[in-house]
Specification:
One of its GO terms (cellular component) is plasma membrane. The chain has two domains: 39 residues, no CATH class; 79 residues, no CATH class. By secondary structure, it is mainly alpha-helical. The protein is built from seven helices and two strands. The longest helix has 25 residues. The two termini are 28 Å apart. Helix content is 61%, strand content 12%.
């Protein structure tokens, strides 16, 4: 994955703002109605760079995939090598991690704009990605 410090030093960010201005020529009234688009570039501070980088959909997907691989690796490690009656620190991490994954699915159900709980569940199950998440 990409080191966050490299985001600040290697990647060049510029913020583009589109500003509109009317042309004020005295030659013709047609020209005065035209709009020109100017792009103003300004430097961005480091916190805006980090926020823009980590909220990019590609980076979110990459870190989400990496997180899921780490979760499955820890779970398979526990099931293959460390399965027993005692609870270890890795077990507790996996319990908390699994609980947060469950709460994310509950949050997705609650964010659906429907009047009843039954219609929310129907809408949630109708999406193929949510079916894959459940099983």
């Amino acid at each position: 994955m990409i080191c966050p410090l490299l985001v600040l030093s290697l990647l060049q960010f510029t913020l583009r703002k589109d500003s509109f201005s009317t042309r004020g020529d005295d030659q013709a009234s047609i020209r005065s109605d035209r709009l020109e688009i100017r792009q103003e570039r300004q430097q961005i501070n480091s916190s805006t760079k980090m926020y823009g980088f980590f909220t990019a959909p590609v980076i979110i997907c990459m870190y989400n995939t990496l997180s899921y691989i780490v979760f499955l690796s820890l779970l398979s490690y526990i099931l293959i090598f460390n399965f027993g009656p005692s609870v270890s620190s890795v077990d507790i991490v996996l319990f908390v991690w699994g609980f947060t994954l469950l709460m994310e699915e509950v949050r997705q159900i609650l964010r659906i704009f429907s009047s009843s709980t039954c219609s929310k569940l129907k809408h949630y199950i109708s999406d193929i990605w949510n079916r894959i998440d459940c099983f």
